[in-house]
Design brief:
Blueprint (H helix, E strand, L loop, with lengths): L1 H15 L7 H12 E2 L21 E3 L5 E5 L6 E3 L12 E3 L4 E3 L14 E3 L6 E3 L12 E3 L4 E4 L13 E3 L4 E5 L19 E3 L15
Parallel strand pairs: 3-5, 4-6, 5-7, 7-9, 8-10, 9-11, 10-12, 12-13
Antiparallel strand pairs: 1-4, 2-3
Amino acid sequence: MASLIWLWAFSVTLTLIPSVFGNSEGDALYTLRRSLTDPDNVFQSWDPTLVNPCTWFHVSCDQDNRVTRVDLGNSNLSGHLVPELGKLEHLQYLELYKNNIQGTIPTELGNLKNLISLDLYNNNISGTIPPSLGKLKSLVFLRLNDNRLTGPIPRELSGISSLKVVDVSNNDLCGTIPTSGPFDHIPLNNFENNLRLEGPELVGLASYDTNCS
């Protein structure tokens, strides 16, 4: 009987130990941390035993301890992004510019319905721009320039009425430059140095995936 009581008390104690791994946002960020090489030790405060990630450097939270910003720009990081980032449902700013991040943009970033700014410029990211980013209806800044992105500019982005800044210059994109929705005010130099990208497109006269085969 005494042993049963001890086991019960031990299990209750375990449930009371604060741990970031009981927090889905902390789980997601720590998965990102494990996928990146960090020679400058910018992740030194990312302690997985804490109750939430709000005390970690480069992470900001709202008054309810929900992650709203990740600021890791110009941090000498390499590695790749992880699909778990899509679990940060209250995230507003994802700043990972000027690193050496490789791999592709996870389609799960399209789940970040509160995202205002997605800054991945000046990395080594390849693959295509996910059409799922068209679900980011709060997005204002989309800066993907100076990477190795291929494929067309997804037409789904034309449906984001809040979008004010798009920069995809210095990639290897193809097709034509959109002109509808927010793209009617984006300057053409934000599309330059994509040798297979044409445009602006003439609606009804040109297939947007020209030169993508």
